[in-house]
Amino acid sequence: MAEYDLLVKGGTVGTAADTFAADIAIKDGKIVALLDEAATNLADDVIDATGKLVLPGGIEGHCHIDEPSFGEAKLADDFLSGSWGAACGGTTTIIPFAQQIAGMSLREAVDDYHAKASGKSIVDYGFHLILSNPTDQVLGQELPALIADGYTSFKVYMTYDGLRLEDMQILEVLSTAKTHDGLVMIHCENDHCITWLAEQLDRRGEVGAASMGVAHGPAAEREATHRAITLSEVVDTPVFIVHVSSHQAMDQIAWARSRGMPIYAETCPQYLFLSSDDYSQPGWEGAKYICSPPPRDPENPAHLWRGIQNSIFQLVSSDHCPYSMEGPGGRKQSAGELHFHKISPGMPGIETRLPLMFSEGVMKGRIDLQTFVAVTATNAAKLYGLHPRKGTIAVGSDADLVLWDPEREVVLTNDDLHGNCDYSPYEGRHITGWPVLSMSRGVVLCRDGKVVAPKGHGTFLHRGTSSAVKKAA
Ligand code: URP
Ligand code: ZN
Ligand code: ZN
Hints:
Layout: E1 4-14, E2 19-27, E3 30-35, E4 43-48, E5 53-56, E6 58-63, H1 79-88, E7 91-99, H2 106-117, E8 124-125, E9 128-130, H3 136-148, E10 153-157, H4 167-180, E11 183-187, H5 191-203, H6 211-215, H7 218-235, E12 239-241, H8 247-258, E13 263-267, H9 269-273, H10 284-287, H11 300-309, E14 315-316, H12 331-335, H13 353-363, H14 369-383, E15 401-411, E16 430-440, E17 443-447, E18 450-451, H15 467-472
Parallel strand pairs: 1-4, 1-5, 6-7, 7-8, 7-9, 9-10, 10-11, 11-12, 12-13, 13-14
Antiparallel strand pairs: 1-2, 2-3, 5-15, 15-16, 16-17, 17-18
Helix pairs in contact: 3-4, 4-7, 7-8
The structure holds N-(aminocarbonyl)-beta-alanine (URP) and zinc ion (2 copies).
């Protein structure tokens, strides 16, 4: 019997700390050795990685899969199609949200998502919780028990009817998180500003896609971001600010971090590669870009890139929230009319996140390979309690590896993607560098754009304490 199950041979390994040549030996799904030059007869199987970069599988820390939506709208991806897209785009671990619906206990919400994911997902998965009803029972019993079971992060919203929490409630959630070592993620937008502006726009009949950027303007995001920082300060516990879209909000985070406050944050490809200009595409075309917060003015992305370069952002996550345009559950039918506030917000991106970041970030010299690995994998593993099992290439870590061909030229088209959404906001973009093989725990998931893994390969991940929480302790 050979010493190893698999050798990944001849590649250039990239981690968040280093780039080096190594052959990677894998046994029982784990990396067991990093070797200068390994003889091929040491392993049952060999993958030739000559000319390729071998990077840790991406970790998607923010995605919505098979989650209930407002009204008639229905997310396009379930755990099979969503995980196909993830794997083919170089992501081998996902952490979607398990949303508590009114009247449902947190545990019921989690059980529901286990039933949705199990036997379907081809990538490993954990769940963040969404707290929409933080009663005494939830905060006193259910949440502490779930944190202990490995659901160590949870999102709260400052906007959206049915999800929005008042500041007092957020303070209570933060206090529970502090006591039980959880990490609170906050959607920061000032609900009253949005509602008031939306009413003004509605009265004037200005209801096209472009109004999304007006109603959800940067001031509402900036104020709420600063408020979240204040709530964190009052309770003295870290927070993670999700999907930061504007430099105005980013500046608040930079301000907090410059004072040593434990504020962590992510931005998303839609804020780096899209802008308010996209809303001016005619009719329903502009509605493809509706998400909240929305893409900002064309000068905004340059500021956000500086935020990535200066570690104001620890993560770049997709916020994959795919609504098709056509068909039942799609935007046209579910909204009934082209009205920015009747259209469920969100856009697809789980498969395009890494290729866009690699091409526009690494290949165009905006970030180095180490930063790419850090913001797409390693930092997510640390912040969400999965490191060093996930997010790195080291002896003892899961063999979640992605082979990148840095020279592969691709013109993005939704027809070649693997999710169920009927459009990509990045249709026609030219990409340099592509993930040509993804593996999870030593099992190849997809090769050259073809899924080869059996459905249900993915397994649930009980997550540990966030690095942010440990640091603050
Ligand atoms: O528009 C967005 N971001 N949809 C997903 C839900 C959320 O707030 O993350
Ligand atoms: Zn959100
Ligand atoms: Zn989201």
